[in-house]
């Protein structure tokens, strides 16, 4: 018998918010599907719907190209940012 | 014959330019769009922002967004002009084609127009 999961059921946050188009300029929306290191989270972890995942993928890639969102956050950059503050 | 489509373009200008120079650059881009049969519906000035990573050793950049309608040939010509321009660090063109996307486009351009006023 598999162990019972301790966390609640996953659901698509974008469907919940009734968003039908994800804009690449809206970085707050994109961050819902990104890891702390700036990677795109898989659907099996976030619970996004297929439709939303496809849109968010495209939007993140566009935002990365325009330097709105980082490609990768490495430890060097993290310490640098802390240093500036 | 090519149809008129909905487009959005965003570009990042160098942060080293003075205020007048950035204004001149933006006007130049607008002029090239209009010259190539484009019809600007609204603009969004996002100002100077921190970049997520360094581009050409610059940590900041001036972002500007233009929503417009244009033909396919016009886009090619505008893109060629972008590539020649040394002050533009990065640019992107996005085509809004399906019904849903065009609806998003009109909504965003209206919001930008409201913000500008």
Automatic annotation (TrEMBL), chain A:
Biological process terms from the Gene Ontology for this record are: translation
Among its keywords, does the record have Ribonucleoprotein?
yes
- What SUPFAM superfamilies has UniProt attached to this entry? Ribosomal protein S18
The record's GO molecular-function terms, alphabetically, read: small ribosomal subunit rRNA binding; structural constituent of ribosome
Q: What role does this protein play?
A: Binds as a heterodimer with protein bS6 to the central domain of the 16S rRNA, where it helps stabilize the platform of the 30S subunit.
Q: How does it assemble?
A: Part of the 30S ribosomal subunit. Forms a tight heterodimer with protein bS6.
Family per similarity comment? Belongs to the bacterial ribosomal protein bS18 family.
Q: NCBIfam families recorded for this chain? A: S18
Q: Which HAMAP family match?
A: Ribosomal_bS18
The protein's matches in PANTHER family, at most eight in alphabetical order, are given as: 30S RIBOSOMAL PROTEIN S18 (PTHR13479), SMALL RIBOSOMAL SUBUNIT PROTEIN BS18M (PTHR13479:SF40)
Return the protein name: Small ribosomal subunit protein bS18
Source organism (scientific name): Halarcobacter anaerophilus
Q: Which gene encodes it?
A: rpsR
TrEMBL record, chain B:
**One GO CC annotation:** cytosolic small ribosomal subunit
One GO MF term: small ribosomal subunit rRNA binding
Q: Name its GO BP terms in alphabetical order.
A: translation
Q: What keywords tag this UniProt record?
A: Ribonucleoprotein, Ribosomal protein, RNA-binding, rRNA-binding
User: One Pfam family from the UniProt entry?
Assistant: Ribosomal_S6
InterPro entries tied to this protein:
Ribosomal_bS6, Ribosomal_bS6_sf, Ribosomal_S6_plastid/chlpt, Transl_elong_EF1B/ribsomal_bS6
What does the UniProt record say this protein does? Binds together with bS18 to 16S ribosomal RNA.
Q: Which family does it belong to?
A: Belongs to the bacterial ribosomal protein bS6 family.
HAMAP family attached to this UniProt entry = Ribosomal_bS6
Q: What is this protein called?
A: Small ribosomal subunit protein bS6
Q: Which organism is it from?
A: Halarcobacter anaerophilus
């Amino acid at each position: 018998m598999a162990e019972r999961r301790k966390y609640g059921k996953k659901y698509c946050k974008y469907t919940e918010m009734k968003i039908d188009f994800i804009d690449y300029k809206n970085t707050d929306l994109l961050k819902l599907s990104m890891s702390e290191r700036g990677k795109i989270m898989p659907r099996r972890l976030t619970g996004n719907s297929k439709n939303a995942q496809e849109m968010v993928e495209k939007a993140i890639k566009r935002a990365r190209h325009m330097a709105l969102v980082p490609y990768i956050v490495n430890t060097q950059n993290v310490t640098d940012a802390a240093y500036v503050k | 014959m090519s149809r008129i489509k909905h487009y959005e373009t965003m570009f990042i200008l160098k942060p080293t330019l003075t205020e007048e120079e950035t204004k001149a650059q933006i006007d130049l881009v607008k002029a090239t769009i209009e010259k190539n049969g484009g019809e600007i519906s609204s603009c969004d000035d996002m100002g100077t922002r921190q970049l997520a990573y360094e581009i050409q050793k610059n940590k900041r950049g001036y972002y500007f967004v233009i929503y417009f309608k244009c033909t396919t040939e016009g886009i090619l010509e505008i893109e060629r002009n972008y590539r020649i321009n040394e002050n533009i660090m990065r640019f992107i063109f996005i085509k809004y084609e399906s019904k849903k996307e065009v609806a998003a486009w009109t909504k965003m351009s209206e919001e930008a127009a409201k913000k500008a006023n």
